[in-house]
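Researcher: Quick sanity check before group meeting.
Model: Go ahead. Protein one:
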Amino acid sequence: MKSKMKDVVNEGANLKGGEVDCRVNLVSIITPIYNCEKLIAETIQCVQAQTYQNWELLLVDDCSTDSSAEVIQSFVKNDSRVKYFKLEKNSGAAVARNKALEESKGRFVAYLDADDLWKKEKLEKQVKYMLEHHYAFTCTDYEKLDEAGNSLGKIVKIPARVNYNLFLRNTIIQTVCVMVDTQITGKELLVMPNIRRRQDAATWCQLLKNGYDCYEVPETLSYYRVVKNSLSSNKLKAVKMNWYWYRKIEKLPLWKACYCFVGYAFHAVKKRIYHKK
């Protein structure tokens, strides 16, 4: 595995001075869309502002009922890297992300939900870090924002290395922070199961179970927005879905599901005690 990874990552990777050749390594950014007219323009603009410019932004509309499509089309007309697709019926984030993955052409796949943001150096630093260290799966540290986009003044740090068993007990990998080198992993492991919640966690498990541990990019490069009444803000549903994920998706035996659930609950509380900026 290691020799293969070295061959892959060194292909057109670096220029003089350790810079990354943006012409070689296209990044496909996957963004599901549903009724996000108030926030999507800022999210697209944060991608356009990236110092790493070799990207495609794949926006898949899950049948929004607001003016999200009109907002997006104004960007599509002026930037060929911004691409818009619409599902035939409302199907959930997993189906939307899988459609974007199907349409993607990049070596690297990154995830950016419609209400989240990146620092302008995020893609450049993450691609460079992965190429330098021969990593297939990475996650940056992230900062939380309120619904208006104001910093909450706190950050969440990712463990230096996350394997499958650790992730089951500490589901700290945040979607907005993730990047995967599909030239190493292939695309198949990124196909999300068709469930309404925890489809992202189940996908990271697919990678982790196949030997692709997730490594921290030790810098705060992503912003996660806390939105009231979102799926992720409903804690009771999150707890129920986590148990469903353990038993029905990962098919853990009862004893291990209970063990992992205790770890999950502990770390869920611990994540409320963030590192100060």
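Researcher: Fine. The other one?
Model: Protein two, sequence then structure:
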Amino acid sequence: MYHIAVSAAFGFRVTRTDGPARTGVLTTAHGAVDTPAFMPVGTQGAVKAVTPRDLRDAGAQMLLANTYHLLLRPGDALVARRGGLHRFMGWSGPLATDSGGYQVFSLGARRSIDEDGVSFRSHLDGRPVRLTPESATDVQVRLGADLMMAFDECTPYPATADEARASMERTLRWARRARERFLAWRAGRAGGGESMTTPGQAQFGVVQGGVHPGLREASARETVALGFDGYAIGGLSVGEPPPVLHATAGLTAERLPADRPRYLMGVGMPDDLVEAVARGVDLFDCVLPTRNARNGQLFTRRGPLSIKGAVHAEDDRPPDPDCGCYTCRHFSRAYLRHLYVAREMTAATLNTLHNLHFYLDTMQRMREAIRSGSFDVFRQAFHRTYSRRPRHELPGD
């Protein structure tokens, strides 16, 4: 039988505040995380184009893996037999997993939702698959995640108040079932037929409600009442304008317990991270730094740079003169453009190393600014220099 040993390994404490922005320490069985923190996304148990050693060198503290994809391949039971996801993928630090809710949302016509859960066809081989609040919890337990998410229904944008309410209320009903299932594992009352001990696992509830303030408030209140170990803000970065994203994230964060970690799921752009930290968010994940790297876009302190432009063909400068990453210390824009145009695999690696360094360094600089009481100065300076509009040449080049 699978079993979660009762452990005090998970914890969170706020160490400094500067307005709503805050630093903290998130403690897990696999190490501590300084917050606010960004989690690189390892969809299938790997962050694309880089190794765990690269991630540690870049300053990554915690990774996020994808429940939906790992359920389909290689399967949670196989991962459990291999000693859990940490051992399987060679990552010794903390790991979080999503619930599969967003992937189910993105499946569109390939899935059907009912009160019990979601049925869908595997995108790999078409076989029928069923996910429920209980089974999504079981999968994450078997993977051995330090932080796991309760199964939720991601509300689309736009959605009417009635549509958002129905989705939010279903997420609440699912959250109760997911919490009950998780607590059964913790107490040793869940079945499974095999034996596994993963100390200190924690479960986060997900707040939904679309962009409707009253629904967000109700969702936060009812989710907190279920007594989760931490709380995630879901259903954002699905098409809403940035000011709406920022306002909704801030309103939700205000209504979450100050002594629990707050996680804004799937966000986002660098300026979104700054604005969310300003509103008291602690954890982030997004595929943008790795996906955009593979598509030839590099993030810099002045904005995104398209390295594939012909303007870089004979440019000996680094992608970002202000960056100290391995890529910027050793390679020119001309070389990186050549690799991209030639479709060399090394292009994805070097671009990804740079983008992850930029994201992780930005989080580090925010932590330092909060600790020194100068976060608002950092925030204003960031917005003066950073533009999210992609370009082939940066301002001032």
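Researcher: One line on it for the slide.
Model: The CA atoms of residues 115 and 295 lie 39 Å apart.
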